[in-house]
């Protein structure tokens, strides 16, 4: 019967005229002399490649026959009771060469399950959207031919620059002689224009001037509101808002930090010189007149130095105008000043069984790699990519609504306002919420994000393993976060250095934080918490074998705590604050190297060990050598396997071409 099947297949292939007579005769011969199915599959996998140009670009087929004939052959064998696993050799390699005018999208459109789209080096200014899923046995792979040689660019050069001719053209701002202007598309604002000059960050104009313009939202540098006159819709400050022109603040915005730790961005709608009052859309009911603070942004008078910009709407034309003081005016006409014109680089679009590998993604005003709410995707792999130079409030790599996500060996750097890598299911603690299952985030390097480096929201059975997260110092610039109903999470072997808080949690169950180095962002140990657990309904949390340093204290725990275990760590102080009680916390066998102000740690002295001389604990903590000193106190505490060395001053890195 098998020989009859082969005869039928050969006849069909001959009719199609796609394979050589040599190939057909050899396949026929293998079976007629008693060959096995394994042998014929080997022949199929080793036959010569051919080139199909039917789609206008080269499609290198590993087999010399059409996909339809393979399907025909497989179905016939299935009917005969022959089971054959999917064979990757039947897949296609689709080669995309941008220098020939080809787009990545054209290759993705052509791809079917099992295919690999290989992209040759070059710049690709496009948004790539998957339209087809792979399968578990035959995923679709989109990859750069060589790592870090393919740029999926979200930005374009700003064109049409003109120099400001006279001060009246820019409301007599003092630095008018240094300012150039150009039109940008409708919808571009100071918050999403993402301006860079020759790869150098540019900052929107702000007052007070921030110490780090990239992390502009440091509330401690804002101005206090006047407690007596402040409201949700207005700020009155006759000492600051001293101008006489009621239109002086037209086009500017105010950033209000409310004491529930939110940043509210509001255009200034009105200005009343007689009282020194500005009006804006309400910031809601969470104001705290004795604590809230504000800054004013996007005003021409705040362009004070090279790299500062303002985006204003022109009432006469309805278009937006970008005003900019360049680092080097020669870069303007050279096309080296760029702005974001595409929100995303690669959109998963709720498809499944995909691999995205080896790309540089730059200059987006949204997620570089994006999946959004909708039908859950399954088995998405994102590896060896580099996302940077972006401005948005989302994730650089967004794996929202993905089961079995894998993000590994990616580099993420300089995402103003935004986050690094995020996995999210339903963002609710409802019992029937669908959680994202089995994500693995490992060996990524994330730095200079305005918000958290790695987020789990509504995740079950997730892992964050071996990541380096450093210098995230924006308003919500934390290290690692588990929020909104996460369950069964392992956070292990990560280094988190100089972020606002290394670990934050709320609303979850069964979280283990093990063998991490968690370094605060204040070497003097003032007012910074290394690990925080904001615990609405947080239960069964274990911190063990971690090193925590350079902060005011190691733990800030709130609300009722059930099933907490803090053990075998090396801590620079402990602070426990519960709105209910501390009865659900076990703190034992920790080595404490600093007393929290007020001495509260001494209440745990019976079950823990104090050693304030750090030289008796680590080989050299000041240089990041957290190996234990031989014969030191409480040797079982600290990192596993005797500790490790950590680079306390890591620098942002790029993928190396060809990695």
Radius of gyration: 30 Å
Number of strands: 60
| Fraction of residues in helix | under 10%
Q: Counting H and I runs of at least 4 residues, what is the number of helices?
A: 6
Mean residue pLDDT: 85
What overall form do the CA principal axes indicate?
globular
Helix/sheet category: mainly beta
**How far is the N terminus from the C terminus?**
50 Å
Low-confidence spans: 13-70, 74-89
Largest β-sheet summary: 16 strands, mixed
* Fraction in beta strands: 25-35%
Task: Explain this structure.
The protein is mainly beta and 659 residues long. The chain folds into three domains: 1-57 and 64-90, no CATH class; 157-338, no CATH class; 412-642. The protein is built from six helices and 60 strands. β1 (50-52) and β2 (59-61) form a beta hairpin. The protein is globular and about 75 Å long.
Keyword list:
659 residues; mainly beta; 3 domains; ten-stranded parallel beta sheet; 6 helices; 60 strands; 9% helix; 35% strand; globular
Brief rundown of the structure:
The chain is mainly beta. Helices cover 9% and strands 35% of the residues.
Layout of strands and helices, then pairs:
Elements: H1 2-16, H2 21-32, H3 37-46, E1 50-52, E2 59-61, H4 67-79, E3 92-96, H5 104-110, E4 116-119, E5 122-124, E6 128-129, E7 140-144, E8 150-153, E9 155-157, E10 162-163, E11 180-184, E12 196-197, E13 200-201, E14 203-204, E15 206-207, E16 223-224, E17 234-236, E18 253-258, E19 262-267, E20 270-272, E21 277-279, E22 293-297, E23 308-313, E24 320-324, H6 330-333, E25 337-340, E26 346-347, E27 354-357, E28 360-362, E29 369-371, E30 377-378, E31 380-383, E32 386-391, E33 395-400, E34 402-403, E35 406-408, E36 411-416, E37 419-424, E38 436-437, E39 440-442, E40 445-449, E41 454-457, E42 459-465, E43 468-470, E44 480-483, E45 486-492, E46 495-497, E47 503-505, E48 508-514, E49 517-519, E50 529-533, E51 538-544, E52 547-549, E53 553-557, E54 564-567, E55 570-571, E56 585-588, E57 591-592, E58 609-610, E59 618-620, E60 625-628
Parallel strand pairs: 3-4, 4-7, 5-8, 6-26, 7-27, 8-28, 14-23, 26-29, 27-31, 28-32, 29-33, 30-34, 31-35, 32-36, 33-37, 35-39, 36-40, 37-41, 38-42, 39-42, 40-43, 41-44, 42-45, 43-46, 44-47, 45-48, 46-49, 48-51, 49-52, 50-53, 51-54, 54-56, 55-57, 57-58
Antiparallel strand pairs: 1-2, 2-3, 9-25, 10-11, 11-24, 12-13, 12-25, 15-22, 16-22, 17-21, 18-19, 18-22, 20-21, 23-24, 59-60
């Amino acid at each position: 019967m098998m020989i009859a099947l082969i005869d039928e297949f050969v006849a069909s292939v001959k009719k199609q005229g796609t394979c050589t007579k040599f190939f057909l005769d050899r396949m026929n011969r293998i079976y007629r002399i008693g060959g096995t199915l394994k042998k014929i599959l080997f022949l199929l996998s080793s036959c010569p490649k051919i080139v199909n140009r039917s789609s206008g670009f080269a499609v290198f087929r590993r087999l010399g026959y059409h996909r339809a004939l393979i399907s025909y052959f497989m179905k016939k064998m299935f009917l005969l009771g022959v089971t054959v696993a999917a064979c990757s050799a039947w897949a296609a390699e689709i080669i995309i060469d941008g220098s020939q005018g080809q787009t990545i999208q054209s290759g993705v459109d052509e791809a079917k399950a099992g295919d690999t789209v290989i992209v040759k080096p070059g710049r690709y200014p496009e948004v790539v959207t998957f339209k087809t899923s792979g399968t578990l046995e035959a995923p679709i792979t989109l990859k750069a031919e060589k790592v870090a040689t393919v740029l999926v660019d979200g930005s374009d050069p700003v064109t049409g620059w003109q120099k400001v001719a006279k001060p009246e053209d820019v409301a007599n701002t003092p630095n008018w002689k240094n300012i150039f202007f150009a039109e940008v598309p409708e919808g571009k604002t100071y918050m999403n224009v993402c301006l860079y000059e020759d790869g150098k960050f540019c900052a929107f104009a702000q007052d007070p001037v921030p110490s780090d313009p990239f992390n502009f939202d440091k509330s401690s540098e804002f101005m206090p509101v006047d407690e007596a006159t402040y409201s949700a819709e207005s700020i009155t400050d006759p000492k600051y808002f001293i101008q006489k022109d009621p239109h002086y603040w037209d086009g500017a915005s105010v950033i209000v930090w409310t004491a529930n730790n939110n940043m509210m961005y509001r255009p200034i709608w009105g200005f009343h010189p007689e009282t020194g009052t500005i009006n804006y859309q309400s910031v809601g009911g969470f104001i705290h007149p004795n604590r809230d603070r504000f800054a004013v942004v996007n005003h021409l008078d705040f362009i004070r130095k090279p790299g500062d910009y303002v985006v204003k709407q022109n009432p006469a034309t309805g278009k937006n105008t970008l005003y900019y003081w360049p680092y080097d005016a020669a870069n303007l006409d050279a096309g080296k000043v760029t702005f974001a014109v595409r929100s995303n680089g690669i959109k998963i679009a709720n498809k499944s069984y995909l691999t995205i590998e080896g790309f540089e993604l730059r200059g987006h005003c949204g997620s570089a790699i994006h999946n959004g709410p909708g039908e859950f995707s399954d088995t998405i792999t994102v590896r060896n990519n580099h996302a940077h130079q972006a401005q948005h409030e989302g994730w650089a790599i967004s794996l929202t609504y993905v089961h079995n996500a894998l993000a590994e060996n990616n580099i993420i750097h300089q995402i103003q306002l935004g986050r690094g890598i995020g996995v999210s299911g339903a963002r609710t603690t409802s019992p029937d919420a669908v959680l994202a299952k089995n994500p693995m985030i490992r060996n990524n390097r994330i730095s200079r994000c305005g918000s958290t480096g790695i987020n789990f929201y509504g995740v079950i059975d997730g892992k964050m393993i071996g990541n380096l997260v450093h210098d995230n110092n924006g308003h919500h610039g934390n290290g690692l976060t588990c929020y909104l109903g996460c369950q069964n999470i392992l956070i292990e072997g990560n280094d988190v250095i100089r972020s606002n808080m290394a670990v934050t949690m709320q609303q979850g169950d069964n979280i283990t934080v093990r063998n991490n180095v968690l370094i605060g962002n204040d070497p003097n140990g003032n007012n910074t918490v290394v690990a925080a657990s904001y615990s609405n309904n947080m239960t069964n949390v274990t911190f063990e074998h971690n090193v925590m340093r350079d902060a005011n204290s190691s733990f800030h725990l709130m609300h009722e705590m059930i099933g907490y275990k803090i053990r075998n760590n090396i801590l620079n102080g402990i602070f426990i604050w519960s709105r209910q009680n501390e009865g659900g916390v076990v703190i034992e066998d920790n080595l404490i190297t600093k007393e929290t102000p007020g001495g509260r740690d001494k209440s745990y002295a019976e079950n823990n060990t104090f050693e304030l001389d750090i030289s008796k604990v680590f080989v050299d903590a000041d240089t990041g050598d957290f190996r234990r000193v031989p014969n030191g106190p409480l040797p079982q505490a600290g990192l596993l396997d005797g500790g490790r060395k950590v680079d306390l001053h890591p620098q942002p890195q790029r993928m190396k071409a060809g990695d």
